[in-house]
Amino acid sequence: MSFNWFKYSAPMNFYPLAGKLVPIFWLLALTLTGFGLYWGFFQTPDVLSEQKQYYRIIFVHVAASWMGMWLYAMMVFWGLVGLVFNTKLSFMMAKATSVTGAFMATIALVSGAVWGKVSWGTWWDWDPRLTMSLILLFLYIGYMALQSAIDDPRRADKASAVLALVGLAIVPVIYYSVNCPNPNECASLHQESSFKGVESNILLSMLVTALGFWMYSFAVILMRVRNVILAREINTKWVSELSDTNQ
Amino acid sequence: MFKTFLMILKRDLKLALRRRSEIFTVLFFFIIVVSLFPLGVGYDEKTLQRIAPGVAWIAALLASMLALERLFLSDYADGTLEQMLLTPQPLSILVLAKMTAHWLLTGLPLVLVAPVVGILYHLEAKTVGTMMFMLLLGTPILSMIGAIGAALTLGLRGGGVLISLLILPLYIPVLVYGSGAISESTLQSGNIEPHVLLLSAFLLLSLIFSPWATASALKISLE
Amino acid sequence: MSLTVANLQCTRGDRQLFSGLNFQLKPKQLLFLEGQNGSGKTTLIRTLCGLFVADEGDILWQDQPIQEHLEAYRKELFYLGHLNAIKGDLTALENLRFNHAMSGQNCRDDDLLNALERIGLYGYEDFPTRQLSQGQKRRVALARLLLNKSPLWILDEPFVALDVAAVELLQSIISKHVEAGGMAILTTHQAVPLTQGEVQHLNLDQYASQAGTLSYV
To answer: Which domain holds residue C169?
Structure first.
């Protein structure tokens, strides 16, 4: 049996499919996030000491900053697919992804700031990871600003896809410059992996939470893309039939 | 192909020379921004020397931003850009010529005026030399990456502010290594070679990809 | 040599302009595009130039899709839109020299001056074009037609802003081009008399799409 992928690249066919997938992703999101955070909050050892329970913020912070980066890559991926195959739906996916990506980058920033306040006594520290989250948020804001500034959806989709692509090409350079502002010191001060020596218990709950965030992102992106489809295809026959049957 | 490049470059320079005020606008913007900082943070010599590299670069970023909106706008408004898209020559060559003209008119003057920053911020001659060299290396990157933003926002409402939103975050590596090298050169044992190499690599990267990205952006904007 | 359009469909925003458009243009043929405002004349012209990609259908030049052979196609194409592509700070001669050289065809200054004289700008060659009138600026743009050797001309409203003498001149330039074996596509209500060759008319209103214009009650 062959599964016809191209059938679902048409918004008309994707809309009902997305509708069916949303509850599944919500269920997975709640289960995984719930389990990951429960495990992280109550079943992991107190690595530092009894008083320093605040370290558990990382279960949210790490998952959110991963998602911020992954969703940017996913947004670029959909934009690229759209540019190459000229499929409307992929641009709509890219557009829907940007909002969730910006949300995740914001969560990463806020949780990072709270972490900073309790551990270093300051809301903001120019730590490379936090700085990178901030820059990522700027990139998302630029993407969304360009989207909303262009009236013609076709131009808006393609232009923002090019912008995201350029952003992705420069992000590694930005990442390097933020992590290593003085290249004279970088050779010796190699950034150590943060996972070294982390207990597998902690790592596991981080991964499960991140997986839960993934599922949440899928659910929300699909919900948003359904709205985008309706808004863009409002003049077509299938949408008017859809609203007739719903009345 | 090279003939086309030269032709567009010459035309853009000729047009700019017939409207000289626009070149000076950018230049004086740079000088004004640079001289406002001491008024804001105080005249302490040590402080000024310490902030000079960052201030000079941020002023350069803003100044080159200022001229970006006009990069394609007048050609777009009078139909020249449409004609350029319809020529048999590759669009990326035409775009590269316009970027070069933009740099000669807005980037190069900043390099030449850098000694003024040196005087205002009590910098040593050696530091001023590094500053000029780093500006020479970094400002072409600003023109090239900026052109992508200018092409994407062509003809949009509030285009100027929008470009800054899209492009300023992408300028971060230039800012970090450009000013990093100048600070480094004030030290006794300073070694700016890694900065120079990194910035050159970024310059090369932009030279390869930005004409192509700008050309695709222009095609999208003119559809 | 021919331009063939098959089953073309174009959409702007969420509005479908026309669909199922077919026509063929051969040497010694002149095509008039007609239609109401908003019927998609300009979009069709931009699509024929390769600036805009149609939703469906093919545009073939010498039986090759134009989007796949854009550079070769553009050597054979001359397009003039509503805008003159004239810089106010450059003189008429400089404008013409630049615009003509951009289309990849070489030519000496004598020919340029000659073209400007024939289009009725004798004595204005060295004035910055911002000092010229609307009609004179249009003439600077049209002077390119006298030098251009491309077989296919696509002109969007070429007669706008011209006085009676210039209209007659342009009519004769276009008819000479077509009679000499060229092709031209025009959007205009101005007739162009031909002694040889064939005139076609294409009314876009007949291809207007009914779908997509939903009425809300």
So the answer is: 1-76+150-217
A–C interface: beta-carbon pairs under 8 A:
18
Touching B: which chains, 3+ CB pairs < 8 A?
A, C
Q: Give yes or no: residues C58 and C156 share one domain.
A: yes
Q: What are the Cα distances from residue A197, in Å, to A56, A130, C112? A: 16, 22, 78
For A228, list phi and psi in degrees, rounded to 5: -60, -40
Per-position pLDDT tens, chain C of length 217: 889 999 988 887 777 888 888 899 999 999 999 888 888 888 899 999 998 888 888 999 998 998 888 888 988 899 998 888 889 899 998 999 898 888 877 778 888 888 888 888 888 888 888 888 888 899 999 998 888 889 999 999 888 888 888 888 999 999 999 999 899 999 887 788 877 888 888 888 888 865 444 433 3
- What's A152's DSSP letter? S
Domain boundary among C133, C149, C165: C149
CATH of the domain at C8: 3.40.50.300
Residues C62, C7 share a domain: yes
Q: CA A136, CA B195: separation in Å to the nearest integer?
A: 24
**How many separate domains does chain C show?**
2
Whether C2 and C72 share a structural domain: yes
Within 8 A by CB and 6+ apart from A77, the residues are none
User: B194 — contact with chain A (CB < 8 Å)?
Assistant: yes
Measured in angstroms, the CA of C88 and the nearest CA of chain B are apart by 9
CA distance A6 to B202: 39
In this complex, the chains that touch A, judged by 3 or more CB pairs closer than 8 A, are B, C
Tell which of C102, C107, C153, C154 to mutate to test the B interface (max B CBs under 10 Å): C102
pTM for this entry: 0.89
